[in-house]
Amino acid sequence: MAIVAGVDFGTLSVRVSVVDSERGLLASAIAEYPIHRKREDPEYATQSHDDHMRALVAATRNAIKEAGIAGEQIESIALDTTGSTVIPVDGEMNPLGEYYLWCDHRAKEEAAQITELAHREGLKAIEWCGGVYSSEWGFAKLLHWLRHNPDKREKFASAFEHCDMVAATLCGVTDPRNVKRSVCAMGHKWMWNPQLGGLPAESFLATVDPLLAGVRAKLDGHYATSDEIAGTLSPRWAEELGLRAGIPIPVGAFDAHWDAIGAGAAEGDVVNVVGTATCVMAYVKHSRLIPGVCGVVQGSIHPQFTGVEAGLSAAGDLFAAIARRANTSLAELGEGLEKYRAGQTGLLRMTWDNGDRTILVNPNLGGMTIGWNLQHTAQDELFAAIEGTAFHTRVILDRMTEYGATTHRVINGGGIPQRNSALNQVYANVLGKPVLVPSSKVTGLGSAVFAFLAAGIFKTVEEAQRQICPAHVTFTPQIEQQAVYDELYSLYRRLYFHFGGVAGEGYFGDVLPTLIRIARRETSKAAESGSELIRK
């Protein structure tokens, strides 16, 4: 018998799960932290490293207390985080600002410049991350920071993904050159590819912007999969957390990737980690380019397989926004959704409220609903939004199948599916496949799997999964409803590509970006007018 701690940093909170190798989950605890946003800039989203660490301490101590154990009994701690969530640091690992959260989209211009130059120069790495570099990803965010923080550039020594920064902090690492970097994070978000020589060449980065000159060397170091050890828990943080100093901490990863492991994924499965956004995860034996998919990276999910990542930029936060506009709670608005039939609302909802992550990789899109009449309700829109996320997921799975990543099983992971049976049934009907849902919470279990490996308790990922992952509840496609969704899906695909930016007959790809551009321009003018009135 052995006990470990699995840590999962989400968008709004951190969960620490205490897991026993024989009895499974003993207890878990959550501690929250704020997102810093600006009303005048909807793309802005940052968080504080100190807030994260305070929350980690609180959640760890509460989880230990709930489990009824002594902290000294925990033999390893492993951490996953959101991504790409980026922080610049100085030469002693002190933050030079706040994390650019994964949903911070201020770096759209920088991402577009990277994409344009990559295609102009034939940079092969761009094809391995879907052909379009995203404003959600590392180099774009770092360049944005460099451009907007001239007073801090001299102190800049490196930048880290959240998972690597937290592990380094806990291990007491004070030199950026000694931090082990996650293959998962750097492969999917920073175009790192060992087959192509690692990171993009210095000459390429300096051509994007001279501010990136020298950055490649500052990001250099040891890149590792999560079956390697990042370090051991330092005495200072052992005291803070109530744990034993010296326990191993494996190299971290992104939350959705380890959630797939915790959900019991195997080769040939697709795991939809449905939370604030949706990450679509799979792993395969052989790597192959998949156009429009966020990343194809060896060792990123399972150390012995090639990880494939795709996703939706809005899911849970989209549902919550609909409820908020209706001045009600999501739980209340969701009551009775299981009574809806496929196509009943007459609405088609394009779930681009936070842009498109896959397969168009276009942040300059907005949500769109077609089919409104005067009798429609907020609950109708909520159901149509659930259908929309399912249709979008089908677009992604179609693309993955087309390029050899065939889906044998669909697992709906994340927090939302376990409390929304209507969503799972819609997904089964839209995808035309049984949808499996873990019978109990799996957040943190993926972290626990790698903590057990680090402690030497289990020898393989599969052995740990068999011991601690829960069974699944299965939602089977309803034939009549599936036929309706097949009909609606053909309409959805037309809207998706015509309004999403693929030129051709019926092309409307400039409509949504133009609306966004005009709205920003006029909002800026309104803000300037308000400031002028205040001055007068």
Structure overview:
By secondary structure, this protein is α+β, with helices and mostly antiparallel strands. The protein contains 17 helices and 23 strands. It has helices at about 50-65, 110-120, 140-150, 160-170, 185-190, 200-210, 215-220, 235-240, 255-260, 315-325, 330-335, 380-400, 420-430, 445-455, 460-470, 480-500, 510-535; strands at about 5-10, 15-20, 25-30, 35-40, 40-45, 75-80, 85-90, 100, 160, 180, 225, 230, 250, 255, 270-275, 280-285, 295-300, 305-310, 350, 370, 410-415, 435-440, 470-475. Helix 2 crosses helix 6. The longest helix has 25 residues, at about 380-400. It is globular. It starts with a strand and ends with a helix.
Number of strands: 23
Tell me the helix content. Answer: 25-40%
Range of strand content: 15-25%
Low-confidence stretches: none
CA radius of gyration: 23 Å
Biggest sheet: strands, sense, closure? 7 strands, mixed
Shape descriptor reads globular
The assigned structural class equals alpha+beta
Mean pLDDT across residues: 92
Which sequence of strands runs across the widest sheet? 17-18-16-15-21-22-23
| Continuous helix count | 17
How far is it from the N-terminal to the C-terminal residue, by CA? 72 Å
